[in-house]
Records
---
Amino acid sequence: MSTAVDTRPVHDEAEDEQILDAIRKWLERDVKPHVLELEHKDEYPQKMVEQMMELGLFGASISADYGGLGLSATTYAKIVTTISEVWMSLTGIFNSHLIMAAAVQRFGTEEQKRKWLPKFATGEIRGGLALTEPDCGTDLQAIRTRAVRQGDHYVINGTKTWISNGIKGSCYALLVKTDPEAQPRHKGMSMFLAPKGPGFRVSRKLEKLGYKGIDSAELIFEDYKVPAENLIGGVEGRGFHNAVGGLELGRINVAARGVGIANAALKESVAYSQIRKTMGKPICQHQAIQLKLGDMATRCEAARLLVEQAARAYDKGERCDMEAGMAKLFASEAAVENSMEAMRIHGGYGYSKEFNIERYYRDAPLMCIGEGTNEMQRIIIARQLVERNPV
Ligand SMILES: Cc1cc2nc3c(=O)[nH]c(=O)nc-3n(C[C@H](O)[C@H](O)[C@H](O)COP(=O)(O)OP(=O)(O)OC[C@H]3O[C@@H](n4cnc5c(N)ncnc54)[C@H](O)[C@@H]3O)c2cc1C
């Protein structure tokens, strides 16, 4: 039986600070010195992944009842922002994993929670979310990956693409069609926990503009057999609901990454503009640069406040698709604008691979695409505005 209980942890400011402090120290000591090298080699940060396991990050939002840290969305968003200020890619390694875990925690049966969540929380089993296919991303109801029941298991055929952690992960929350003829289409969709095994292969690693270090892959399922007990919630037809049910938190997370990139671009610009001199004075004394810094700082603050507002609403169990959509839209665009402005402020050095700025510029646009494109966020916000303000 499905137990869609949504236990939202309470936000504790003092506890937040302790966790953030440990993370900041780890970032300074073990991450910052290695980012440029790993980024440019596009190398998986294996050692950092092990350190993130020790820090408990793979169980950050998993309930303490199942071995996780049970952090609130508010605290989690702060962690994501803090890490993204140093290397946004790292957050993708535990974030898509935690969205898979959230699908089990929110919609799984008690047996599924007890079997999977403790191993997700330690990072012993890591993975992500497999929704997108080569010919559909936004229109998820158009997926074609098919699962057919045969006795006590399902046989799955299809292709998923752009799957974060697709190579290094070992298990995915896999969205499929169990009834391709169903109307409305979402009633024919189901979600499985799909561990790697016979019939499940990675066909290729996808090369990207940014978001280096983390593996994005195409996954192929050919007569892949999965036990019926891996059907999340134990009932067919709830897959679409399971997938979109995680989107509010997913959008808050992407927004938090956007704040991290926007902040990093600002901080480096404030520092650099005091050191770099032209016409006999630091460039921060030129009004043209001050106008940029003023706008950048304002975007950072506004984005941070929108993320906090959405996370607080989420923690209270309130409907927050509009708030999460606004946070995601604004913070991701802030990341894009701030990284471009940081590049202008840094002049030629902004374009150099020996500095961080060009990385922010390559990483930021992904925030506008993932977890629902910004075009879709505007539509969601507008629909909610009308729904909440009937005439
Ligand atoms: C680096 C990276 C990592 C990713 N990780 C994952 C992952 O782990 N798991 C996963 O499942 N997916 C993942 N994705 C896929 C991502 O979620 C999709 O790319 C995204 O949802 C957009 O889908 P699409 O690329 O198919 O674009 P499309 O859906 O084809 O959209 C194309 C354009 O049309 C617009 N559009 C579409 N429909 C409408 C509409 N109704 N109204 C107005 N405009 C519309 C879109 O906004 C966009 O501008 C990842 C993608 C990238 C690039």
---
Amino acid sequence: MFGKKKNTPQIDPEQLELIESAQKRIKQKKRLYIHFVIFLIGSLFFILANLTLGIGEQVKFFDINWFVFAILAWLFILIYHVFYVFITHKFMGANWEKLQLDKLVAQQQQRIDKLKEQFVKEETLIAQSAAYNEVKKTHKRNRGLTIIVAAAENDAIGKDNQLIWHLSDDLKRFKTLTNGHHIIMGRKTFESFPKPLPNRTHIVISRQENYTVPDGVIVVNSLTDAIEASKSDSQAYIIGGGEIYKQALLVADKIELTRVHHNFEADTFFPKIDNTMWKTTHNTFHDKDENHAYPFSFITYKRL
Ligand SMILES: NC(=O)c1ccc[n+]([C@@H]2O[C@H](COP(=O)([O-])OP(=O)(O)OC[C@H]3O[C@@H](n4cnc5c(N)ncnc54)[C@H](OP(=O)(O)O)[C@@H]3O)[C@@H](O)[C@H]2O)c1
């Protein structure tokens, strides 16, 4: 049980294939050489059999002894063998060459796919940065546009226009962070509240021209207008839902994420956070307890 672990030699399969092909080639040449030697001995035997032992003395074609034809016929077979080894199966054989060519083409294809993938990623990053800089320029905002969201391990955030879980510490954190600030949300998220939250300025995004809201709630027709409307606030929050988060990820500079460590069935999801665009600056884990049915972590991301 505690004996020395036996070392199994690892041979690269490509090297093995190369060795096997080389061995096959050596065998082919060896067989040709043996054929040549047998041909010489056979020819000598035919000559001796005919001229010395008198075998088939009478058998002649066009007045030429039979052994000449026998040797010529064998010579033809030997030439065919030489042709087979050195011309048809030159180097490592046609099949081997084709296999190597196919492998090379597959490797090149893989490299091209990788480069393409990298190119698309870089293009996306450039486009995202350009969009972000454009919004910053247009709204002359200082850094202070934060996404606040609670998302499950599978990025689920809502179902049937409702939150899926109830985590009291998460709600407390939401209240503390957003208290006194502008909160930007999609029309559906706004409608999921029983009434507007106290001590916050609500900005609701809708494409509807005559969308009616209680007094004090601001309605705008785009995220850009929502950011414009929150300009006076040095720390505005984007509070959802799925459609708005997707657009806001391009322009926000911070994400306050509550990651709920569980998978849920949902109809609304938070987009994947791209680690090349965002870095974690804070991460606190909370285990489940009598007030919290699931463990969760408060994670802060800042745009790179
Ligand atoms: N877990 C969390 O932290 C969290 C937070 C918030 C919400 N949620 C959940 O998310 C779900 C709601 O999200 P959702 O994606 O369905 O809806 P949503 O993002 O809240 O609202 C979508 C609506 O916003 C308006 N809208 C979106 N983009 C617009 C644009 N570019 N210009 C103008 N208007 C625009 C449209 O309103 P009109 O149709 O009126 O034009 C659209 O129907 C709910 O289940 C909610 O509970 C979860």
